[in-house]
Each structure stands twice: as C-alpha cells, then as structure tokens.
Amino acid sequence: MSDVDHMRHALMLGRRGVGRTGRNPSVGCVIVADGVVVGRGRTQDGGRPHAEAVALKEAGARARGATAYVTLEPCATVTDTPACSETLIGAGMKRVVAAMQDPDARTAGAGFAKMRAAGIEVVTGVLEAEARETHAGFLMRLAENRPFVTLKIAQSLDGRTASATGDSKWITSGRARAFGHLLRARNDAILVGVETALADDPELTCRLPGQEGLSPLRVVLDTRLRTRPGSKLVATAKRQPTVVFAAAEKGGDSLRAAGVEIVRVARDARGRPDLGAVLNDLAGLGISRLLVEGGATVHAAFLDRGYADALEVFTAPITLGASGHSAIDALAALTVGEAPKFTRTLVRKFGPDVLESYRRKA
C-alpha cells in the first residue's frame, strides 16, 4: 500500500474523534512496519493521550524502524506528557509521513526539525487538503480566534422551517433527524437564538443510542435574558453545561441558580449580543466547532457577518407555503454579487429527505 493509502487510514481514525478532543485537534496515526499496520490510534476524548502515543503503545517494539503516518505534525512542546516528536524519536522510527504542518506557534515546524535532526526521514503534504478539512475547527480557532461554524437547516421544498402556526415537528424523517444528532456529537457546542429556545423548548442534546455522552456545550443568544427558568435547557443545566450570552446588564439570577452560566457581551448595531465577541469567548473556552440550529434571525446574522463556514441543509418533500416560517431571515446583502456564496460538496439521502452539504467559497 502507498503513503496515500496509509494516510487515508490515519484520516479515518482522526475523523472518529472530531468534536470529542477539546482544545486539541483530532489527530489520527498509523504505524506501518514491513508493509503491515502494527499500531494505530487517534487523539483520545478530552485531548489526551495524543494519537501518536496511542499508536506507539499498540505497536510496542515493532515500531523500531517503522513508518508513522500522522494527520498533523507531531507536537514539539513538553507539557504534562512528552512531546510526540520526541516520543517518535525515542521509539526508533525510521520515517514519518505527515499530512500538514501544525500552525500552533509552539510547534509550527519544530516537530519536523527535531525528527530530521535525529535522522528520521520526514515527508509532508500527503493528503493535506483532506487533513485541513478534518482539522478545520482547530485551524479556525488558531487563525481567527473563533470556532468553525456550521449552520444546520431542516426545511420544506419551499424553504420553510415551520408552518404558519409555528409547528415544526417533524418536517424531516427520523433518519434525517438521527443524522442531525450525529452532527451534534461532531461539534463542541450547539447554538440557538432565544426565539427558538422559547418556541421549541429544545434539549439540544445528542440522543443517539450509545452516544448520549457526546452532547455538546449548549449555547443560547438571549439579548434580554428571556430564557424560561422552567425550560428543558435550564432544568438540565447542572448535568449538561449551558451558556447564555446576553446583552442585558442585569437579571438572570434564577438561570444562574439553576446552573446556567451567563456571559454578558457587547451589543451589536441592533442591540443584540455581538457575534464576534460571542465566538471569541467560545474559542477561549476551547470550542473549535460550533453547530448553529437557528432560528432564521440567527442564521441571517451569521451569514451577514461572514461567520457561516458550512451549511448542512436537510430538505423534506413537503411544502408549507409563503405564510410558513423561513429558514433564513432577511440579509443585509443588497445585490447578488454581495450575497454569501457557497460550494456544494456532498448530497446524501435519508429516507425521503435530501441533505446537501456546502462550504463557504474562499
């Protein structure tokens, strides 16, 4: 098998941990000796141990003289554990193939330099584009001090998310909703506006069998602290972390007493919590991937500010008419040329529903 084949294996391992590794990137590592995989691993939940350490433990003495395939440059910084570049050196690795350099200033090529100085052959850039996709949240947090943001929309054929009465259960099928829960598990945090919180009283948890423990941090944008103390979000806040970003200077005592963290941020031009400040604060909490589930005003705000990096659009084969609730509120863009632009990357079917995945054009 080629370097590309083994790197695909490493990327597959890394993708399994997306949304589960905290501040650390979800790296995959495969160790190959004489054409045989002798060790493999991914960064573990919470960020430790790193993928290289997991793979080396499995490989044991067979790692000496082998090749390691890693989706990100092995770290060069000693923290509470040895640097992965030094661990690979100590294991007697002959060759290391990496998909991309780590942009973190603490490593940023230093890991490669250490290994080369120790006589290890280092190859870089193998499937780099795919690695950048896997590590998109980590890269965005380092480059722009904010999470990678995905807007999730479940809509009718005519772009409505609820009927004229506000009823939205259930537009899409059970299979589509199950994949929506998987999206929650793959993100560090999930965000809604207060209108969605009031109208739907959601739990915002991952309820896939066996993955209930992967529910992300729950975030509500609530300008005037209208979140109901008796809501599901508040009632479960002591066991499932919940943050409310508000622009109000006072209030929120009952929410705080129930376990909700209240963060007061600056107002934007419309008097709402400033999205830039919210995203910076989330990055400070180690949030690398954020899933936004509405509503229409919130979706429009992220699109207007250029903060929507990806879209996951579920479309059900029903129509709700012009009086139904739209998926996205009015945008500030005045011309087609000014409108946010995306590239469709994937189309999938879930029962009767279609999921279209989009990425923002650079």
Question: Keyphrases for this structure?
Answer:
nine-stranded mixed sheet; 362 residues; alpha/beta; globular; single chain; 12 helices; five-stranded mixed sheet
Concise description?
This protein has 362 residues and is α/β, with parallel strands linked by helices. The protein has helices at residues 3-15, 51-59, 84-90, 110-117, 128-134, 136-144, 174-185, 194-200, 232-235, 253-257, 275-284, 296-304, and strands spanning 28-33, 36-42, 67-70, 95-98, 121-124, 148-155, 160-162, 189-193, 217-221, 242-246, 261-264, 289-292, 310-315, 325-326, 342-350, 353-360.
Description:
With 362 residues, the chain is of the alpha/beta class. The protein has helices spanning 3-15, 51-59, 84-90, 110-117, 128-134, 136-144, 174-185, 194-200, 232-235, 253-257, 275-284, 296-304, and strands at residues 28-33, 36-42, 67-70, 95-98, 121-124, 148-155, 160-162, 189-193, 217-221, 242-246, 261-264, 289-292, 310-315, 325-326, 342-350, 353-360. A hairpin with a 2-residue loop joins β15 and β16 (353-360). The chain is globular.
Residue ranges: pLDDT <50 for 5 or more in a row? none
Write down the Rg: 22 Å
Quaternary structure classification: single chain
Spatial gap, N to C terminus: 34 Å
Secondary-structure-derived class: alpha/beta
The mean pLDDT is 92
Number of alpha- plus pi-helical segments: 12
Spatial sequence of strands, sheet with the most strands: 11-10-9-8-12-6-13-16-15
User: Biggest sheet, open or closed, and with what strands and sense?
Assistant: 9 strands, mixed
SSE sequence, one letter per element: HEEHEHEHEHHEEHEHEHEHEHEHEEEE
Count of distinct strands? 16
Strand % is 15-25%
What does the overall shape look like?
globular
Tell me roughly what share of residues is in helical segments.
25-40%
